[in-house]
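Throughout our pipeline, every protein is held as a single compact record rather than as scattered files. This encoding replaces a full spatial description with a residue-level series of whole-number codes. The remainder of this section carries one protein's record, kept here as part of the documentation.
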Amino acid sequence: MKNVSALFQKEMRTYFTSPIAYAVMVVFLLISGYFFYGILSSFVDFSMRAAFQAQMYRMPMPKLNVNELAIRPLFQNLSVILIFMLPMITMRLFSEEKSSGTIELLYTSPITKVETILGKYLAALALYVIMILLTMVHQAFFFLYGNPEVGPVIAGYMGVLLMGAGFLSLGLLISTLTENQIIAAVIGFGVFLLLWAIGWLSNFVGPGLGRILSYLSIFEHFDDFAKGVIDTRDIVFYLSFIFFGLYLTYRSLESSRWR
């Protein structure tokens, strides 16, 4: 664990001594803030129209569900934003080592490949967690001016963290396949977009193939979390996805060593 900790600290220093972490966090917060403002404005407008109609027709004010009308759409939008942002976090993890030639030092150092993978992955995951924690400012507004349920908010964040962790493991794998960081980012974006698209395509194929595509879609498993439902099957899927991504990363490093 000492080697993992040392590599984790080194990667975190690299993130925050370069513009990468700041650029990713600023862009992520700007985009998520834009969606938050739009969703909140729509919710306020809907509330005002509902109150006006209730007053006009002398009816009781309908009870509006903040979780369903505002918080759930916000989590769903966050899941789409991750397609664009997470490849920026993982693109340099191994491709930079390859382009600079330091990958040979990793192969010959006493640090094992498993420790290398865990150190880099945990650093990327830590940066992602920081990004997600910053979005809690949005939730603070909902709790300050509304009365949302806490459970669905916790479930939504759990889903966002698990899905992002799965994307990061896949991005780490992609970073081992090329020396060019831009290519790693583009491939990562394409693969993440494909994982979103196969869930959409499941509606246009036969029921058997549709169920398979729906299960493979990383976004389909996020829907229950966004609705406030924590299903152990979805948790197992994400944990398996993370393990599979890290395992393939290990196999990729093993094969490149012999090449």
